[in-house]
Structure formats: structure tokens, C-alpha cells
């Protein structure tokens, strides 16, 4: 136990207490489970990041401070009535698109791992998509609340603005090649549409459209074809052409390197894990085996060190978060609040599923962060804002029930 | 709207449950399959975070395998070092980063890494993990006597061959030496150098004691004689006439020696035939018994099955008839196998030194054959013995009376027959020579199998030396056997 790690622990415990005091003051009736769960997940993440790379942990620490500050600011600003956000729904929709478009701009954009979803200003890098997700949910909640009756009737002109913004978002995604994001936004959209209209048919049509779209994208995009191939057949018996090195190589040494090593990492954990900090993440020369281990692949490091027991416990914590989030949506009195809370919660669950499911080879792997746990500033900031949103809805619902 | 919200909530929980199921799949069912993948470098590196158990010789002091530590990326890694270098390499084997493990390092990997299913070890390893302590493996203590082992290797230097010595009453392996050998410390860094040898036969990584397949020559007469006596068809006094050859399929099969003027002994009995290794006598015994009976006795001694030693399966082979390199177990041996040639150890026989030592040990142990064992004790890091060697009788290939009669015949070999070079003053030695033609002029594979003291043996030995020009079992192998036995009896 070094002084550095104890300092971290002390500092972040104080930060958590501060966040708790803010919630007590601003949203006293809010659900009491969500903030502790977020604190727990953030702590697990920070511990693992510190174990993998202390320098990253320091940066992540700064981002957590920023995130908690924004969390507090959100609560303060909207503590009286968050529902006035509904008035600005179109502004949110357009802002979301604008944020998603930012990385495409030549001056700011940055391509990482084949996806163009970073923005950099000097040394500062962030993914605007994470915040755009929340804005999109606010827009969808406002729009669908207003139009839910007519949407359920299925008149084309009421679909107009929705489909317009939707198609724009999809185009942006295709341009940035952020598959995980695309799947996430589309899933949130369908879930919210179902809740607003109660029409299973829309979900069916939506899923059908998604499949058609997915096949279409798959046909024209080599990047996507690659992802699917890696998913279906990560191991080859014979050497094949490796586009990364330009030589013949086994696929597990080439495109599917990261996925396969991550599976080895998870498998090595076994039932009880190697123990936190005792896992094997570097090869004999001290080089980290799995690239992006503390961002997209942090789950495979955690699964190795905590084992099945620890990984399952971690997922159960996510499930409790989702249960509390859905409970807030059920208790909320108005349509906007219900849609927003359920949308945010479902987005949280779906994002977890997309990254962990990708790592576990349940679905094709696409890079996206694990909420609260992964290393990444924009992710941790966005998730704390998401948490603030849920607490605001919860506070209002509980206060009205007590009245 | 609440109904729909519940539906979406359930959908979200189903997605997260799928993740728990997926994780369970990879960490339990698929776990072993992933671990065995060649490119699994996590597993590969992880095994170096375990402090492997040490390996000691029978004296409990001579260290055969130990660890050196290196710090890499904040992790302490343990790498193997073999202080005795080439002396024990073929038994102990090696455990390195880049190559498959061999020898006891492979077959006892579970014990050496503390991952054996033994309750004590499971508990301790789990506790180590929880405490964050380094997992430490169990130590092995072998049955091999370090000084005799070193002596055997010294005697084999420059030659190709093997020496196996057993304790007949318990099956303990006292010496298992093979030549040429290699330095296991070079396997990782300089594999090319490790596999280089000046010996004409090459292949220093091969443990000739357990996978060397040699024509047994006259040493096989131990088995033929055992069959002859045990079936009751012959006694040591059964009379024979030796004209210098034996007639088989209308042709002469000549005795050893000059092909133009082979040795001729005239009127002899079975005991004398054994003492002087007269081929015509055994040729006639073989014709009388038939190939089937002789092969049956060979099987009773363990031919046609892998010797049950603790080395990995790939480092042991069966003894028996080999046809085009493959083990050949004839369905109708009396029609497919030449009984006369089989009886004096020709035909297509191929025998390992370990198997021949087991035969000598069984005869010395009054007909009871013991399982050869090489691990004396397994000791947990705290000093507690987890398991210790328990003598195990494999079977009783021949009757006690047969064994004792055969012992007397084998004593005559050393006192006045072909194996006088193995005589040790003051100790009764029983032995049998073997000189096998390998089809290249006067180049022979020379054998000596023996045990001593004859009445209550403490050591049984088999020595084989390859490619000896004009060399014989009695002149090449018997002196080696003598010196190693002396060292072991001291």
C-alpha cells in the first residue's frame, strides 16, 4: 500500500462525500442508491486504471473532478424544474447532431482505431458522442411525449422531424464509422419509440430496417466486414493475408489479436480470479499484451483479476443501477420524465451490453466505453451528467408522491 | 406507459444477464480450451509468476531445478535454472518460455505449480491468491542417486547409450543416464548450441533410457530362459548338443563368432548354454516353446505396454517386435515369427534400456516385478510431505523357483561365462550379456543386464552402448555396469 494509492483513496472519498452533500441539498428526495453505485463503479474503474497505468489514473482523477463539478452544476441549475428542458428539445436535437459532426471537421477531428469520433483542442481530446447521446435522449423524450398519440396513429407528416434528425444522426455515424455508437443510438431510439407508442410493430419494423441497413453497411464498408469476420472466426488454422502487416499470418496474430488476447485474459481469471493487481497484463518483456486495456477492454482486465465471482458481482451492480433507473421511470408522473429516465437507463444498459458483449464475443466488437469504469474523460463526464438527470427525475417523482 | 417501461426494463436486464452467462462460459467451460491455445501468452507469462517447486536428488541436497527471479514491469517473474546442467536433463526435462515442457517438469507441472487437485495444495494456493502472495509450488525429491548418476554419465561420455539402475524390491530408479545429453540451461537462450553434440548418433534431447529402441541380442535370453524354466519344459540341466549351428526351416543358423568357424560347444546343458550364450541352444529352446510362448513371457515382463514411469507419455515407448518402425503384435506368432531367432534376441525385437532393467530387477526380486518410480516424495512449501513413494507390484511374470534358478544361471555368466568383466570382489553378481548385430559389418549394440547381490539384490541394472566396432556386451557394457553397481552398493 503506497502513499500515492492512499492519497487517491482519501481524495476520492472526500469527493464522493461532497457529491453526496450536493445531492442532499439539491435533490433531497432522489433515489438513494444511484450515487453510491456510481461511486462504487468509478472507484473500481479508477483502481484498475491505477493498477494498469498510474499516469492514466491521475488524468482520470482530474476528469472525475470535472465530472463531479458538472454533476453538481447540473443539479443546481435544474433543481427547481428540469422539465423546462422540454421546451428546448429541438435545440437539443440540433446540438446533438452538431456534436456528432464535430469530429468530421478537418481541423478538430481525429481518427483512432478506424473510427473518427475524437475531437482535439491542443492536447485535450474528447469524444463528443458521449454527451450527444444524452442530448439525443432529451430530444427524443420531448418530441415523443408531445407527438406520442399521433405517432401511434402512424401519420407520415408527424414522423418528418423525427426521421430527419434520425437519418442525419445515422449518416453522421456512417461517416465517423462508429458502429458501437450507431447500435447504441438506434437501440435507444427503438426502445423509446416503443415506450411512447406501445406499438410492437414499430420495434419489429425498426429491427427489420436495422438488419437491412446493417447488411447494406456491411456490403460497402470494409471496416465493418472486418469486424464481422473477426467476430465469427477469430482463430484460423492456416495463415491468411494480414492487411495490417502485409504478410501472411494467422488471424489471431493479426486482426483479431485484441479480441483473442482479451478472451485469454478473461479465461485466465477462472472462477476466483488472480487477485486485484496480480493479473497478467504484460508479456515477458514488460510490454502490455492487450492494446486499449484500460479503456474499451477494461472489463477483460477486471474479469481476469476478479474472476467469475468478481465479474458477475460487477455486472450485478450494473443491474441494480438499471433496476433503480427503471423504477424512477415507473414512478415519474409525466411522459417526458418517464421517457427521459427510461431512455437514459436503457442507454446505460445497452452501452454496457455493447462493449462487454463485444468483448465476450456475443456480438461483433466495437469500441465504446464501459460506463463509469473505463478510462476516458468524456465518458466519465457524460455518465455523471446522466446520473444527475436520473436523480432530478427521481427527486421530483418522490416529492410529488409524498405530497 | 408503465407497462412498456417495464418491458424495456426487462429487456435491459436480459441483456445484462447475457453478459453474466457469457462471462461464465469463457471462465468455466471454455477456460481449458483457451488455456491450451498455442498463442495464449497470458497463460504463458502467468506461469512465470508462479514460484515453481524445486527438484532435488535422493540425498535431499543436490538441487536439480531451482528458480532465478527477474523483475519485469513491476511483476516478479521466476525462471528455471538447472544447477546440475546435463547430468539430470533427460529426467528432469525443462520448463522455458518458448518451448514445450519436457520430462518431470511437464508430467509434474501441476504439483510444481501448486495447481494439483490435492486438497491441502488447493487450500494453500487459494489462500496465497487472496493474500496477494506469490503462489509457490511443491518440491519434488527424486529417487536418483546423484553420485552414481554422474558416474554413469562419465562412463558413457563419447559413446551413445544409456544406463538404467533400479532397486529391485521397490522399483526405485537409482540411475537413469543417457548419452549424449544436453544442457537444459541453454534451451531458452541458445537452442542450437544445446542440441549440438560431437557424438556420432546425435539427438541429445532424446532420453535413450526410455525411448531408445535397441535390438536386445542375447540379453533377451533372460526372457527365453525364464519361459523355458517357468513352463516346466526345461530345467537348468536339460541336455543339448551344439554343433555350432541350429537348423531352422532347413537352413543353418550359426552361433556367434567367426561366420566361417563358429564356436562349437558339443554336449552342454541349458545352464551352460546360458553361461556362454550359445545361440544354437536357445534356437532349439525357441523351436520347442514356439514364438507365441516366448512373446507371452515378454508381455508378462511388460513388453507391448508403456512402462509405467512418471515421465510424460511421449517420452516412453513400448518394447516388442517392430515392423517398419511400428509396434508389431502378431496374431499368429507361431506362423509370423521365427521362433529360433526370437529366442536369442534377433528377429525384429526392439527393447528399451528401462524395460531390460525391469526384467533384470524382476528376476532378482524373486519373480515379482515392481513399478519403476522416480519421485520419492512431494513436499509442500511448509515442509509437509504431500505424498511419498509407495512400492507397487506390477505383477509376477515368473514363479519364485524359476527366478531363483535363473539367478544361479546368471551368476555363472559373471563367474565364468561371457560377463566376467562385471564381477565385483566379495559380491555375488548375476548378469547377462548381449551383443546385437545391427546389420553393418562388425558394428554392434552391446548390452549388459545384471543385479547384485544375487541373493538379495539392492540394485538391478541395464547398460546399452550403441555402434561399437568389434565390441561386445561383456567387454563394453559389463565394465560400465560393474562400476555403477559398485557405486550404488557402496
Structure characterization notes:
- The complex is a heterodimer of chains A (403) and B (490).
- With 403 residues, chain A is mainly alpha-helical.
- Chain A has one domain (3-402).
- Chain A contains 13 helices and five strands.
- Chain A is globular.
- Chain A starts with a helix and ends with a helix.
- Chain B folds into two domains: 46-142, Penicillin-binding protein 2a (Domain 2) (Alpha-Beta Complex); 146-185 and 195-375 and 391-489, DD-peptidase/beta-lactamase superfamily (Beta-lactamase, 3-Layer(aba) Sandwich), CATH 3.40.710.10.
- Helix content of chain B is 36%, strand content 21%.
- Chain B has 19 helices and 20 strands.
- In chain B, strand 8 and strand 9 (251-254) form a beta hairpin.
- Chain B is elongated.
- The interface between A and B is large, with 64 and 49 residues.
Q: How many individual domains of chain B? A: 2
In percent, how much strand structure appears in the residues of chain A?
A: under 5%
CATH topology of the largest domain in chain B: Beta-lactamase
Return the string of H and E elements of chain A: HHHHEEEHHHHHEEHHHH
Number of DSSP E strands of chain A: 5
Tell me the Rg of chain A in angstroms: 21 Å
Cα-based radius of gyration of chain B, to the nearest Å: 27 Å
Structural class of chain B: alpha+beta
For the sheet with most strands of chain A, the description reads:
3 strands, antiparallel
Q: Looking at the structure, what is the overall shape of chain A?
A: globular
Terminal residue distance of chain A: 50 Å
Q: Give the overall shape of chain B.
A: elongated
Q: Using DSSP, what is the number of strands of chain B? A: 20
Strand order of the largest sheet of chain B: 3-2-1-4-15-16
Unreliable parts of chain A: none
Corresponding CATH superfamily of the largest domain in chain B: DD-peptidase/beta-lactamase superfamily
**Mean model confidence by pLDDT of chain B:** 89
Relative strand content of chain B: 15-25%
Tally the helices of chain B: what do you get? 19
Instruction: Detail the poorly predicted runs of chain B.
Output: none
Amino acid at each position: 500500500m503506497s502513499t500515492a494509492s492512499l492519497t487517491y483513496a482519501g481524495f476520492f472519498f472526500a469527493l464522493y462525500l461532497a457529491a453526496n452533500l450536493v445531492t442532499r441539498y439539491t435533490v433531497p428526495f432522489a433515489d438513494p442508491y444511484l450515487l453510491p453505485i456510481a461511486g462504487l463503479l468509478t472507484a473500481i474503474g479508477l483502481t484498475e486504471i491505477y493498477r494498469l497505468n498510474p499516469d492514466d489514473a491521475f488524468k482520470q482523477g482530474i476528469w472525475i473532478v470535472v465530472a463531479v463539478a458538472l454533476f453538481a452544476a447540473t443539479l443546481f441549475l435544474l433543481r427547481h424544474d428540469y422539465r423546462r428542458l422540454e421546451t428546448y428539445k429541438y435545440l437539443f436535437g440540433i446540438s446533438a447532431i452538431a456534436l456528432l459532426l464535430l469530429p468530421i471537421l478537418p481541423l478538430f477531428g481525429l481518427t483512432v482505431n478506424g473510427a473518427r469520433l475524437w475531437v482535439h483542442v491542443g492536447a485535450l481530446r474528447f469524444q463528443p458522442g458521449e454527451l450527444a447521446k444524452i442530448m439525443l435522449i432529451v430530444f427524443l423524450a420531448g418530441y415523443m411525449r408531445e407527438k406520442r398519440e399521433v405517432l401511434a396513429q402512424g401519420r407520415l407528416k408527424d414522423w418528418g422531424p423525427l426521421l430527419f434528425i434520425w437519418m442525419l444522426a445515422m449518416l453522421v455515424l456512417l461517416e465517423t464509422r462508429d458502429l458501437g455508437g450507431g447500435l447504441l443510438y438506434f437501440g435507444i431510439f427503438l426502445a423509446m419509440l416503443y415506450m411512447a407508442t406501445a406499438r410492437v410493430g414499430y420495434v419489429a419494423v425498426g429491427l427489420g430496417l436495422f438488419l437491412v441497413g446493417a447488411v447494406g453497411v456491411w456490403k460497402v464498408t470494409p471496416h465493418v466486414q472486418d469486424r464481422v469476420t473477426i467476430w465469427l472466426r477469430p482463430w484460423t488454422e492456416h495463415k491468411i493475408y494480414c492487411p495490417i502487416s502485409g504478410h501472411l499470418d494467422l488471424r489471431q496474430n493479426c486482426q483479431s489479436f485484441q479480441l483473442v488476447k482479451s478472451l485469454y485474459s478473461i479465461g485466465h481469471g477462472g472462477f476466483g480470479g488472480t487477485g486485484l493487481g496480480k493479473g497478467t497484463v504484460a508479456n515477458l518483456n514488460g510490454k502490455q499484451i492487450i492494446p486499449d486495456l484500460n479503456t474499451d477492454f477494461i472489463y477483460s482486465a477486471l474479469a481476469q483479476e476478479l474472476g467469475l465471482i468478481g465479474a458477475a458481482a460487477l455486472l450485478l451492480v450494473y443491474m441494480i443501477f438499471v433496476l433503480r433507473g427503471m423504477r424512477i421511470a415507473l414512478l415519474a408522473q409525466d411522459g417526458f420524465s418517464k421517457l427521459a429516465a427510461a431512455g437514459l437507463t436503457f442507454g446505460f444498459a445497452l452501452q454496457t451490453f455493447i462493449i462487454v458483449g463485444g468483448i465476450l464475443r456475443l456480438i461483433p466488437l466495437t469500441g465504446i466505453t464501459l460506463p463509469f469504469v473505463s478510462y476516458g474523460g468524456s465518458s466519465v463526464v457524460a455518465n455523471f451528467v446522466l446520473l444527475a438527470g436520473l436523480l432530478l427525475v427521481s427527486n421530483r417523482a418522490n416529492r410529488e408522491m409524498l405530497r | 406507459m408503465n407497462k412498456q417501461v417495464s418491458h424495456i426494463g426487462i429487456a435491459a436486464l436480459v441483456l445484462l444477464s447475457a453478459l453474466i452467462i457469457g462471462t461464465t462460459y469463457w471462465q468455466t467451460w471454455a477456460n481449458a480450451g483457451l488455456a491450451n491455445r498455442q498463442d495464449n501468452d497470458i497463460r504463458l507469462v502467468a506461469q512465470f509468476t508462479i514460484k515453481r517447486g524445486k527438484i532435488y536428488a535422493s540425498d535431499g541436497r543436490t538441487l536439480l531445478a531451482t528458480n532465478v527471479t527477474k523483475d519485469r514491469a513491476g511483476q516478479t517473474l521466476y525462471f528455471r535454472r538447472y544447477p546440475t546442467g546435463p547430468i539430470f536433463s533427460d529426467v528432469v526435462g525443462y520448463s522455458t518460455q518458448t518451448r514445450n515442457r519436457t520430462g518431470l517438469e511437464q508430467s509434474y507441472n501441476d504439483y510444481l505449480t501448486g495447481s494439483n487437485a490435492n486438497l491441502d495444495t488447493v487450500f494453500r494456493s487459494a489462500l496465497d491468491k487472496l493474500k496477494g502472495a506469490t503462489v509457490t509450488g511443491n518440491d519434488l525429491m527424486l529417487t536418483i542417486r546423484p553420485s552414481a548418476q554422474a558416474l554413469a554419465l562419465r562412463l558413457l561420455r563419447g559413446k551413445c547409450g544409456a544406463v538404467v539402475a533400479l532397486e529391485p524390491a521397490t522399483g526405485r530408479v537409482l540411475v537413469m543416464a543417457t548419452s549424449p545429453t544436453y544442457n537444459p540451461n541453454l534451451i531458452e537462450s541458445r537452442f542450437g548450441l544445446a542440441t549440438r553434440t560431437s557424438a556420432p548418433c546425435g539427438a541429445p534431447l532424446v532420453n535413450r533410457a526410455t525411448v531408445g529402441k535397441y535390438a536386445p541380442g542375447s540379453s533377451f535370453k533372460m526372457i527365453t530362459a525364464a519361459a523355458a524354466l517357468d513352463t516346466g519344459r526345461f530345467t537348468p540341466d536339460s541336455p543339448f548338443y551344439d554343433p555350432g549351428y541350429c537348423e531352422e526351416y532347413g537352413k543353418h543358423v550359426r552361433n556367434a563368432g567367426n561366420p566361417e568357424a563358429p564356436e562349437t560347444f558339443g554336449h552342454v546343458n541349458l545352464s551352460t548354454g546360458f553361461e556362454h550364450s550359445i545361440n544354437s541352444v536357445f534356437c532349439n529352446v525357441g523351436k520347442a516353446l514356439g514364438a507365441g510362448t516366448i512373446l507371452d513371457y515378454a508381455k508378462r515382463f511388460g513388453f507391448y505396454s508403456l512402462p509405467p514411469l512418471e515421465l510424460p507419455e511421449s517420452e516412453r515407448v513400448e518394447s516388442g517386435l517392430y515392423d517398419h518402425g511400428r509396434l508389431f503384435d502378431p496374431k499368429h506368432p507361431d506362423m509370423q515369427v521365427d521362433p529360433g531367432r526370437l529366442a536369442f534376441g534377433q528377429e525384429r525385437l526392439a527393447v528399451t534400456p528401462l524395460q531390460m532393467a525391469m526384467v533384470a530387477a524382476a528376476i532378482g526380486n524373486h519373480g515379482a516385478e515392481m513399478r519403476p518410480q522416480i519421485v520419492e516424495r512431494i513436499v509442500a512449501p511448509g515442509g509437509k510431505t504431500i505424498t511419498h513413494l509407495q512400492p507397487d507390484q506390477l505383477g509376477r511374470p515368473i514363479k519364485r523357483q524359476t527366478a531363483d534358478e535363473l539367478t544361479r544361471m546368471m551368476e555363472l555368466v559373471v563367474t565364468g561365462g561371457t560377463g566376467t568383466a562385471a564381477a565385483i570382489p566379495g559380491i555375488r553378481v548375476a548378469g547377462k550379456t548381449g551383443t546385437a548385430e545391427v546389420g553393418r559389418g562388425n558394428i554392434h549394440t552391446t548390452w549388459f543386464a545384471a543385479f547384485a547381490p544375487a541373493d538379495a539384490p539392492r540394485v538391478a541394472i541395464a547398460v546399452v552402448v550403441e555402434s561399437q566396432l568389434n565390441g561386445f556386451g561383456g567387454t563394453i557394457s559389463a565394465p560400465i555396469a560393474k562400476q555403477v553397481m559398485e557405486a550404488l552398493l557402496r
